[in-house]
Amino acid sequence: QVQLVECGGGLVQAGGSLRLSCAASGRTFSSFTMGWFRQAPGKEREFVAAINWSGISTSYIESVKGRFTISRDNAKNTVYLQMNSLKPEDTAVYYCAAGQGWAYYGRNRNGYNYWGQGTQVTVSS
């Protein structure tokens, strides 16, 4: 069993920053691809960022490149999403996810087996 718990969401003004954290249970954290997805009201859940098991490879949705950074600390079983220059369109519930393999650079939500409960990020204009 794998449990993922997100924290760090909140309300921030446009242009501000937040750092999301996702703590994972289990001793096999270092073997997982970790990803961040988000879902805004009335919209489909979409890929945001992913990082492979070693942290050497990352991928991002185009709209967040240069603003968001995904990282991981395998010793702490934690993955992070640093979000800078936030925009109102970034408002969504953000979910962390864990899966195996790096097919499609971690962009396919079907490649993830475990999901966190989500954390709300609201960006005001």
How would you explain this protein's 3D organization?
The protein is mostly beta strands. Helix content is 0%, strand content 49%. It has no helices and eleven strands. The protein has strands spanning 4-7, 10-13, 18-24, 33-39, 46-51, 58-60, 68-73, 78-83, 92-99, 112-115, 119-124. The strands form two sheets. Strands 2, 4, 5, 6, 9, 10 and 11 form a seven-stranded mixed sheet that branches. Strands 1-3-8-7 form a four-stranded antiparallel sheet, with no helix packed on it. Strand 7 and strand 8 (78-83) form a beta hairpin. The radius of gyration is 13 Å and the shape is globular. The mean pLDDT is 94.
Short characterization:
It contains no helices and eleven strands. The protein has 125 residues and is an all-beta fold.
